[in-house]
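User: Some background: our group keeps a shared notebook of sequences we're curious about, and every so often someone picks one and asks for a predicted structure to add to the entry. Today it's my turn. The entry only has the sequence so far, pasted here. Could you supply the structure so I can complete it?
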Amino acid sequence: MVSLQARGRWAALVLAGLTPVVAELTLGNPPLRQAWLLLVWTPIYGAGTVLIRELVRRAGRGWGSVLLLGAAYGIVEEGLALQALTSPTLYGAAGWAPRVLGLNSAYTELNIPYHAVFSVALPILLADLLFPALRHRPYLGRAGLVVAGVVFVLGVLLLRWTAAFMDPGYLAPWPVQAGLLLAVAALAVLALRVVPPPSAGSPPAVGGSAGVPVPALVAVGAGGVAFGYLALLFPFGGARHPAFTQGGWVAAPMAAAALLAVGAALLVRRWAAGGGWGQRHSLALAGGALVGHTAFGVLANGETAADRVSLTVLGLVTAALLALLARRTDRPSTPAGTGRLQR
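Assistant: Of course. Here's the predicted structure to add to the notebook entry:
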């Protein structure tokens, strides 16, 4: 039989390879014809998510900590490596909405939560479903943890080097970089020291599974939230500002996106706290969000008809693979101690 140590290393490799596919390729960024770019992004994406999972599992924390560290990851990638959070030219993001404290406000609101969910939380959730016996364990030993950290730092440097070619001559002012580093440190402390561990073994909330919808409805809701959040903040279809707004009206879709994200997070937290949330609900949550964000990618990122067709096919393949994974998971109403999303 394969040892737990060997299975953990294999699971870590799967998670590292899965992360850039979920975060970038299934959004159509890059298109399939430029999939080789994943080789550049895998060190920061893959090692970063593996590192986050290892830290959270070793600290005995849950999904709140994963999301906080995912936000910290987003700041490192977008603020320190690409420096797109503050650049006045990169991606044209400075023109989406008014800049706030030197930050490209709409771009920041879009990408920090996006990385927390699609670059970190969803790949970890899918890896947990693929390797259920390792769900509550670290994948790697101390040496593997150090290797993941080193590869992540090298990935940050590699992305910073490529960003210098995309946005020549720009370097964020040192007070801004210092502030971003402080934000990353604060999020790390909150995630690993302040946020309490999940209350494993605590009784289900009163009402049990009565308020938990069937997995199909969870998938539809997750897809709608993912599509809606992206559509509210990312200019598409020739628009220069979020949701085709102008002037001060740009605040409306930004506020709507924030309310949508917070409302969805609170709802999932409430459902997961009850006894009726199972592995199929978790898979439906991940799958619906993935399909929803791929659908938006077809609409917004497809530069050519071939790009849109190939991304649509990729979305269908993703859905088929998720359906196969569903057959491996427990039936609905998995007991709370096994499949439940922990706070």
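Suggested note for the entry: The first strand starts at residue 99 and ends at 100. The two ends are 33 Å apart (CA to CA).
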